Amino acid sequence: MRIETKCLHEGYQPGNGEPRALPIYQSTTYTYDSTEHIGQLFDLTAEGHMYSRISNPTVAAVEEKIAALEGGIGALCTTSGQAATLISILNIMGAGDHFISASTIYGGTINLFAVTLKKLGIECTFVDPEASEEEIQKEFKINTKAVFGETIANPAISVLDIQKFAKIAHQNNVPLIIDNTFATPVLCRPIEFGADIVIHSTTKYMDGHAVQVGGVIIDSGNFDWTSGKFKEFTEPDLSYHGVVYTEQFEKAAYITKARVQLMRDLGAYPSANAAFLLNLGLETLAVRMERHCSNANQVAAYLNKQEEIEFVNYPTLEDNQYHERSKKYLPLGCSGVVSFSIKGGRERAVKFMDNLKLASKVVHVADIRTCVLHPASSTHRQLTDSQLIAAGITPGLIRISVGLENIDDIIEDIEQALANK
Ligand SMILES: *Cc1c(COP(=O)(O)O)cnc(C)c1O
Prior knowledge:
The protein has 421 residues and is α/β, with parallel strands linked by helices. The protein is built from 17 helices and twelve strands. Pyridoxal-5'-phosphate (PLP) binds at residues 80-82, 106, 108-109, 150, 154, 179, 181, 201, 203-204, 213, 215.
C-alpha cells in the first residue's frame, strides 16, 4: 500500500459484518476464561489486553497504523508529545547517563532536557546541528546513551541532516531518536535515513483538527541493544520477574520495554476515545499534508517579496539554507509551517499579529486552520536570549502555520495586516 492508502486502511481491517469505522473500546479491563491465560499475559508469553493503562484495542489499532506509516515494527501511544519524549529517553537512560541533542528543538523539549531530566540525574549536551561530525563527536562521553534531533525544527524551520546524525550516533553505538512531528511520515520517514526511534506530538498534524493532545513512540527494530552499553535491555528486569527484553522480544525489545515497564509505572496511556479522534485525523493526513505544503509554498513566496519582512524561513525557497537538504529529506514539501521575521522587532510583530482577521492567534501549530504565534512571548518565553538565538529565534520572529483555507484568502489577510501599521 502507498502512504495515502495506509492512512485509511492500516491498523483496522474489519471482518464480515463488523463495523466499518474503528470502534471505541471504552473498557478499562478485559475478561478471560481461565486464570492460567491471565497468568500467561502477565508472563508476556500470550498476547492480549489486560488493562487499559498498558494497552487497549482502539489505541492498538492506531499504534499499528502509525508504525506502518513510519516503517517501524511497533508503536506506543502516549497522552502527549511530552510524554512520548520523556518515555523515549527514560527507556534508555537513568541517573548518571548523558545524551546529545541538536539545539534546534521544540521549547518544551528544551525545558524537559535542560531542567527536569537534569533533576533526575540525566544530563543533556546541546549541539549546533550544523557543527561538523568531529565537533559533535567531541561531546560524546563514556556514559552517552543517545542522540536526539527534530526533522524540521520548531520554530526555526531548519532541516536536520538525519543521515549525519545517524552516522555519528551509530559510530558510538547509541541510537538516534528523531522527533518527526512537523514532517509527519507523509513527508519524511526518518527510519529510512537511519533513525532508530521516532517520536511525535500527534497533537499537531496527525490529529490536525486541534481536538486531542497526544504523542507516539515508534521503534524501527533496527538498533542492536546488546553491545553491553544498555544493561536494562540485556539483564533481568527485577520489576518484571526477571524478563530479559533482548532475549524474549529480540527486535521489539525497546518498544515492549517502554510499554510493559514504563507505561505500567508511569501511566501516560491515552483513552480509547482519544485514539479514535487521532485515527480520524490520520485517515486524511496524506491529503491534508499535500495542501498544507502547497499553501505554505505560496505564503512563503509572497512573504519573501515583501519589503517589511526581514527574512523568511521555509526550505523550498531558493535562497534558503536548507533548500538542497530539503529535496533529499522532504521531497514532497516542508509542511505548512513557515516562520518569518518582521522589521521593527517585537512591537511590530505583535501589532501585525493583532491585525490578522482570518488567522487565529493560538498556542498551537499544524492545524487545519491558519494560525500564528510569536515564540519570544509564548512557547519560548522560558528561554534565555542565548537559548533563543541557539533555537534560531529573533524577537520579531512570527511562526505562521498555514491551514487549508483558500490560498487567496490567507494571503489577503496577511496583506491587510502588513498594510495596517
Ligand atoms: C508540540 C510539540 C511537542 C510536544 O507535544 P505535546 O503534544 O504538546 O505534548 C514536541 N515536539 C514538537 C516538535 C512539538 O511541536
